[in-house]
Amino acid sequence: MNPVQFVLDVLSLGGAYALMALGLVIVYGILRLVNFAYGELIMVSGYTMFLVSGSGLPWLAMAGCGVIMAIAAGIATDYLAFRPVRAKSVTAVLITSFAFSTLLQNAALLFISPRPRAVPLPELFSRTVEFAGVITPVRNLITIAVAVIMLGVFSWLMRSTALGIAMRAAATNFRMARMMGIPANLIISAAFAISGLLAGAVAILWIGRIGTVVPGIGLQPLLIAFIATVIGGMRSLPGAVVGGFLLALIDTALNYTLPQDLLKFRDAFTFSLVILILLWRPEGIVRGPASGQRT
Amino acid sequence: MMARRNWLTFVLLGGVIVLVAVAAELVGDRLLLRITTNLCISMVLVIGLQIFMGNSGILSFAHVGFMGVGAYTSAVLTIPVQMKGMALPNLYPFLADVQMLPVVGMALGGLTAALVAALAVYPLMRLSDAAAVITSFALFVVLHTIMYHWSDVTNGPRTLFGIPGGTTLPLAAGVAIAAVLAALLFKESRVGRLLRASRDDEIAAASLGAHIPRLRWQAFIVSALLAGIGGALWGHFITSFSPKQLWLKETFVILAMLVIGGPRTVTGAVVGVLIVTASFESLRSLEGAINRADILSEPLVGMTELTLAVAMIAVLALRPGGICPSREVGYYLFRRRARGP
């Protein structure tokens, strides 16, 4: 095993995982809502790219359409599934997000097709380059670059802009933040929009590995985001990034070392790990801000 | 012991099940019989979920996982010995020579599910809210992964066939009625009352001396027992299945039935199953009719689930407690009669 190869694998997988986890945790941090429909934002983005693929637009514009639709779908989650039941129990919110996920998936089944659909990808995604003595697909390097840029922009947004500071305040103590004059609905919609933006970016990188989109495509990223956020800390944004990279490290290491007949049980191992971590340290590795009640 | 109005609830709900079953038997249409049997099986599963979710207030995703445990246990124990060589060639020798009656297999399937639940979930019962939901989801993924890949026992992702059909409508209806009784008895038992107190106010209940994790654990075991029995009934009903039929779509349907009916009451569970099954079957036959008519270039799929998802969101937004939010049906009738002349 080449160490450079290993590091590149971990970084590119971890970058994608970290973005997935971040999109889930930005909503959870403020609302204590596990958004089960998060995976479907990725699906929406993929299908948008499929639908505009015949239009003759340059690829970047198509990718832009995909990201914009993911953002729109994120905001729609807020309005359709979340806002009507926000003041009610946590359970109600969880069920509506699960229902919304089913709704989007079946809409794709009904209006598009249950069969895989090809998504346009630039030729660059399938090329390989030699980097520090190893041959690696260009898309892995793109993933790393996109992850670095987006994480940088995101941390600047959360640290230095009024919106970011307001969102962090809302995540720490929602009621107090509202009393200070932070508009709750705007903050929540913004969180869903950012979640959609991250899902859109993830969709391009994730579908770039597969090349096609199916109605069930969101499940795998959702599960990954789940594990990563639980490992890293459900309440902490840096925790989500740490969790993403740690999960990528575990996955890659298992891929390199586990024998084939145990490898198929990998999901059972990782999810048992999730249960153990939640029991041993319910806050995850990185502790979030002191808790405040939702709404 | 239950109050009289709860017995009235039991008689009314049991009567509805008997009525539906007898009507289906009298009409005797094969499709209708299948739908009604399926309805009774769903009833067992949904009431099982109600016992945990309704009394503890915690959403559990793992229910279909325990349904699978019951279905596979009963299948492995009842597949005829000569079939086992084909269906499960690598089965462990001590199981290969076992062949039980389906009814015995169902009972053992339920007990195995309860046993797995008893051993696995106690630590999870300390968690509340979102953490509890994520762990139950994680548990579901673990159970599903094991069913999907433990080829020696479950035939892996492939369809497991050769299961003897032992589920008749009278049997399924009988189990459903027993499940209604069990749920009502549990709700009114000491454990059920304390658990409902903890659902409404965790801190107050704990300060009164309620050992919340243990109460939830007891409810979860009863819930898993019914899930296992329901799963086994289902297995002996369709006689061949694969782990893909025990995944998120089934979870969604069962959850929708309970949420639309009202998770806090047994009446709600029964009503939810009846309404959802009725609308589900009519939508599905519509979907089938459109597909047979060949109007569209590709077969229509997903319309049924789509409608159900919209209905579920609408119910939660407009009537968050479901159709029967807090009182059992017997309460209303009993009150009216008590007030009368």
Structural class of chain B: mainly alpha
Strand content of chain B: under 5%
Shape of chain B: globular
Cα distance, first to last residue of chain B?
A: 28 Å
> What is the tally of beta strands of chain A?
4
Oligomer: heterodimer
Give me the Rg of chain A, rounded.
19 Å
Q: Which whole number gives the mean pLDDT of chain A?
A: 86
Radius of gyration of chain B: 20 Å
- How many strands, what sense, and barrel or not for the largest sheet of chain B? none
Distance between the termini of chain A: 51 Å
Helix content of chain B: over 70%
The chain-level mean pLDDT of chain B equals 90
Largest sheet of chain A: 2 strands, antiparallel
Largest interface: A-B, 46 and 42 residues
**Secondary-structure element order of chain B, as H and E?**
HHHHHHHHHHHHHHHH
| CATH T-level topology of chain A | ABC transporter involved in vitamin B12 uptake, BtuC
Outline of this structure?
With 295 residues, chain A is mainly alpha-helical.
What does this molecule look like?
- The complex is a heterodimer of chains A (295) and B (341).
- Chain A has a single domain, classed as Orthogonal Bundle (ABC transporter involved in vitamin B12 uptake, BtuC), CATH 1.10.3470.
- A two-stranded antiparallel sheet of chain A has the order 1-4.
- Chain A has helices spanning 3-31, 38-51, 59-82, 90-111, 138-160, 162-172, 174-179, 184-210, 219-232, 237-257, 260-263, 266-280, and strands spanning 117-118, 128-131, 134-137, 212-213.
- The mean pLDDT of chain A is 86.
- Chain A is built from 12 helices and 4 strands.
- Chain A is mainly alpha-helical.
- The radius of gyration of chain A is 19 Å and the shape is globular.
- By secondary structure, chain B is an all-alpha fold.
- Chain B has one domain.
- Chain B is 75% helix and 0% strand.
- Chain B contains 16 helices and no strands.
- Chain B has helices at 4-27, 30-56, 63-78, 81-87, 93-96, 102-120, 129-149, 151-154, 169-188, 190-200, 202-207, 212-238, 248-261, 266-293, 303-318, 329-339.
- In chain B, helix 3 (63-78) runs parallel beside helix 7 and helix 10 packs across helix 12 (212-238).
- The two termini of chain B are 28 Å apart.
- Classes of the chains: A mainly alpha (295), B mainly alpha (341).
- Chains A and B meet through helix 4, helix 9 and helix 12 of A and helix 7, helix 13 and helix 15 of B.
